[in-house]
Amino acid sequence: MDQPVIGVLALQGGVAEHLAALERCGARAIPVRRVEELDAVDGIVLPGGESTTMTRLLDTFDLYEPLRARLADGLPAYGSCAGMIMLATSVDDDRTAAVRPLGALDVVVRRNAFGRQVDSFETDLDFQGISDPVHAVFIRAPWVEKIGAGVSVLAAVPEGLDGATTPDATEREGLAGRIVAVQQGAVLATAFHPELVEGDERVHRYFVRIVRGR
């Protein structure tokens, strides 16, 4: 598959940034808002945003069940931040009754785990399958609380948050080792936003390779 067609769910979030990154990786990237657009893709990206709003918009655009069905049939998918929440099996947060995850990834995700907008930070991560550290941008990010037997951990928060740009980030307790990138078969998810790191498409290239491999 020389040029896979990869859709970006275009209901909210960093749609344009994901589309541009995928194009630079050699894919044909298209926004997805309708079922016929979903039917045309070889893979799908669920961008960041707000997971309760994303759930509501999937219903509004009559996309929730078609997307869930395609994921169950093996459609490769990548979710960043809120996209990770939507791909999960369940969300560990009593306040998120309005979130209906799609169940494509056997993980339990904690929503807004790193805190509020003011607690956003950046750091460098070792990422399995990518040779050099990946610079990661965390904005009201989730983390993975539990993983199923078939899920691989690709990245976790390092000790001391080496390279973190937030002054108090190194003083936060209990963050080291938190899981922030996972893969199960053709489904990839990160708690951070690689589309916001200009000039580094390695996570998107990783996903494009997954799509080509299917």
UniProtKB/TrEMBL annotation:
Alphabetized Gene3D superfamilies for the sequence: 3.40.50.880
GO biological process: L-glutamine catabolic process; pyridoxal phosphate biosynthetic process; pyridoxine metabolic process
Superkingdom of origin: Bacteria
GO molecular function: glutaminase activity; pyridoxal 5'-phosphate synthase (glutamine hydrolysing) activity
Keyword Transmembrane: no
Associated pathway: Cofactor biosynthesis; pyridoxal 5'-phosphate biosynthesis
Pfam families per record: SNO (PF01174)
InterPro entries per the UniProt record, alphabetical: Class_I_gatase-like, PdxT/SNO, PdxT/SNO_CS
Active site (record annotation): C81, H193, E195
CDD domains on file: GATase1_PB (cd01749)
Record field: catalytic activity: L-glutamine + H2O = L-glutamate + NH4(+); aldehydo-D-ribose 5-phosphate + D-glyceraldehyde 3-phosphate + L-glutamine = pyridoxal 5'-phosphate + L-glutamate + phosphate + 3 H2O + H(+)
Any one GO cellular component localisation term in the record: glutaminase complex
Family the UniProt entry places it in: Belongs to the glutaminase PdxT/SNO family.
Protein name per UniProt: Pyridoxal 5'-phosphate synthase subunit PdxT
Gene source species: Saccharopolyspora karakumensis
Originating gene: pdxT
